[in-house]
Amino acid sequence: ADALVAVIGAETPSSDTDEVLLSDVELRARIELRSAGHGVTRERLDIDLYAATLEEIVGELLVAREAARLGQPPPDAEAVRAQRDRLVLAVGGEAAMRALLADAGASESEIDAIAQRRAVVEAFFRANLEGDTAISDAELAARHAAGDHPFGDLPLAEVREPLRAWLAMSALRRDVARWLDVLSDRTVVRFAILPDRRAPADAEDETP
Fold it and tell me: The pTM is what?
């Protein structure tokens, strides 16, 4: 059975909570590795990557819950598709995504769920005049020239759209981290133990 690693909204799962499963964390961690230039791996993933990935997922869920509380309308199909396209581009295309999903034992519906949630999160940031994941051509060229990316010495013409996707995802991650502290003060977040890995129990936030 899939292990529960976090509950958002209460001490225990209910119809009013969001849950994070170990498989959710593993899939997102593998997407992160692939987007950072690593190939598909079947080895157990590093605990630090698990911890960072879990925190990012929890942050997204907290933002999505706040958006729902404020009555934010759901994203349209185009916004969700744009988020999915970013994920696919970041890992190297549709074939690479299929290989990653097969390796993780995951399905396309899980990628769709990530895209849906990220579309909600990005709309929330826009509504609050915070964060901008639109990467201009000028910024793209500057970041490529600076070398602060996982594409090495590949020419910009070869990596333009994957780099744009990677930069956009990095910007979204930054904004989620900024809101995590604010929103976790308002919502109970209960972390469980990661099986066979370090338990992040000390990172609990149980503010009523």
Answer: 0.77
- pLDDT tens, position by position, 138-157: 888 998 898 878 778 888 88
Give me Rg for the CA atoms of the chain: 17
Sign of CA dihedral 158, 164, 165, 170: positive
- CA distance between the termini of the chain: 30
Closest CA to 17 of 200, 196, 188: 188
pLDDT of 99-133, one tens digit each? 999 988 999 999 999 999 999 999 998 888 665 66
Asked if 67 and 124 touch (Cβ cutoff 8 Å), the reply is yes
| Phi, psi of 194, deg, nearest 5 | -80, 120
- For the stretch 17-48, pLDDT in tens is 999 999 999 999 999 888 766 555 555 677 88
Residues 6 or more apart whose CB falls under 8 angstroms from that of 10 comprise: 16, 17, 188, 190
Nearest to 42 by CA among 92, 88, 90, 104: 104
Contact 98, 133 (CB under 8 A): no
Distances (CA, A) of 22 to 37, 66, 75, 168, 179: 23, 24, 27, 25, 23
